[in-house]
Amino acid sequence: MTDTSADLVILGGGSGGYACAFRAAELGLSVILVEKDKLGGTCLHRGCIPTKALLHAAEIADVAREGDKFGVKSALEGIDIAGVNSYKDTIVAGLYKGVQGLFKAHKVTVVEGAGTVVGPNTVEVNGQRYTGKNLVLATGSYAKSLPGLEIGGRIITSDQALNLDYVPEKVVVLGGGVIGVEFASVWASFGAEVTIVEALPRLVPAEDEWASKQLERAFRKRGIKFKTGVRFTGATQTETGVTVSVETGEQFEADLLLVAVGRGPNTAGHGYENIGLAMDRGFVLTDERLRTNVPGVYAVGDIVPGLQLAHRGFQQGIFVAEDIAGRNPRVIDEAGIPRVTYCNPEVASVGLTEAAAKEKYGSAETYVLSLAANGKSQILKTSGGVKLVKSPEGSVVGVTLVGERVGELIGEAQLIYNWEATAEDVAPLIHAHPTQNEALGEAFLALAGKPLHVHG
Ligand SMILES: Cc1cc2nc3c(=O)[nH]c(=O)nc-3n(C[C@H](O)[C@H](O)[C@H](O)COP(=O)(O)OP(=O)(O)OC[C@H]3O[C@@H](n4cnc5c(N)ncnc54)[C@H](O)[C@@H]3O)c2cc1C
Ligand SMILES: NC(=O)c1ccc[n+]([C@@H]2O[C@H](COP(=O)([O-])OP(=O)(O)OC[C@H]3O[C@@H](n4cnc5c(N)ncnc54)[C@H](O)[C@@H]3O)[C@@H](O)[C@H]2O)c1
């Protein structure tokens, strides 16, 4: 017999919901979690994990194709898409098993089905009511489209793009944000002709302008086309293709149109209105402690305005569990959440962009170190760099990296930002040679006035 009351009832078993469930259970609280689909949510089944598996397969394709850059005779014979999908699906299946095991290990009661909020602390699933001393809303997000642009056939979102059983020859990607550039990168590596259409003046427009320039240069070299500062006006599809029109009058023919224009909060139809929850354009409004306007009701993850990232959801879930358990956790600094775009080359950042720092502090000092000064990056034949942003008070308030594999370097940058370190704090700390990580160390040496492998 399933329990029908608990300390916490959580609606949604994605990154935010399950992290909250596990931490609450660790703190001795009883938890009921309601999930209508698969535990693990978007990130595990339709997001982070499958896309990164595709990106890794894409990297292998590039390595095979470019062996002679390193004196190795190799050639890319082709992409076995069934093999790629099977590799990706095996990774997802393994992690899914792991997550299910963690639910059991934490003794979280899982209720399968779509939940509806019917009272401030009550969720109904298949006619059964579940009551919590606290309710945590974690229903995630969905891929948005544009008015008049219907998803179906050759017009797809990331949900369908992850499970294609062929490599398209020509693709138009609508939206040069994170999803857009990641899929553009995969398809280009797999041999497709890719054109990105982005309404704002640059690719990855949420990043520092310097990073956009670096990425655009690298994409140009890779033959990935892009039109920035251009609005989409329409798409028509036939049996054999799709024609995409933009406001300049230009038209693009393709096999597929990937719509990657952002993700909307999945908050409609779950009874949120039944409890008078304060919302804005579908997002659930919370205070900095993730409390909604309804006492005892919290929200975490993509339904809360701000970054839509799995690790933000994890930390918000942990935060709420600790808050409910009376642990008084420290409020999360949204700018301190690292952001990584895993295209080739990668873009990784934490803290403020130069523009945001100037807006916040009136002025900001910056330093850019090119990866041309970094031995390991030369060995890998990758270009890019490290950009540091320093506040007038002296602490480093922003770090942005561009280059192959730099996503793995953001961990150190994240500590530097969140511990409010100065360049002088970091400069004496030793970075192993030759690593790409050393580029970060050398950028800090230079910012502290002691440049090593840089001219001038
Ligand atoms: C293609 C793609 C790639 C991504 N890559 C990355 C990445 O590399 N790194 C990163 O940090 N983030 C990435 N993200 C974002 C990341 O997936 C999300 O930020 C994260 O999944 C949000 O977690 P969440 O718990 O808020 O929601 P979700 O993971 O969406 O979970 C919500 C859950 O709630 C369930 N649910 C909804 N309504 C109900 C209901 N009424 N009753 C019961 N259950 C319900 C859903 O079935 C779902 O399982 C990516 C997203 C996409 C789409
Ligand atoms: N590596 C990661 O961490 C990762 C990977 C994938 C997705 N995600 C998350 O998923 C969310 C959704 O990703 P996304 O790429 O769909 O959203 P996004 O907000 O990153 O990018 C959407 C882009 O579409 C553009 N756009 C909007 N309307 C347009 C129009 N009419 N014509 C042309 N361009 C238009 C926007 O200017 C923007 O650059 C992101 O917030 C991201 O955090 C994260």
Mean pLDDT: 97
How far is the first residue's CA from the last residue's CA? 73 Å
Number of DSSP E strands: 24
β-sheet strand percentage: 15-25%
What summary fits the major beta sheet?
A: 7 strands, mixed
Shape annotation? globular
Spans of at least 5 consecutive residues with low confidence = none
- Rg calc: 23 Å
Small-molecule binders here are: flavin-adenine dinucleotide, nicotinamide-adenine-dinucleotide
Q: What count of structural domains? A: 3
What is the CATH first-level class name of the largest domain? Alpha Beta
CATH architecture designation of the largest domain: 3-Layer(bba) Sandwich
CATH superfamily of the largest domain: FAD/NAD(P)-binding domain
- What percent of the residues sit in helical stretches (DSSP H or I)? 25-40%
Number of helices: 13
CATH topology of the largest domain: FAD/NAD(P)-binding domain
Structural class: alpha/beta
Structure description:
This protein has 456 residues and is of the alpha/beta class. 32% of the residues lie in helices and 25% in strands. Strands 1, 2, 3, 4, 5, 6 and 19 form a seven-stranded mixed β-sheet that branches. It has a five-stranded parallel β-sheet with strand order 8-15-9-10-11. It has a five-stranded antiparallel β-sheet with strand order 20-21-24-23-22, sandwiched between helices. The termini are far apart. The mean pLDDT is 97. It binds flavin-adenine dinucleotide and nicotinamide-adenine-dinucleotide (NAD). It is found in: Cytoplasm.
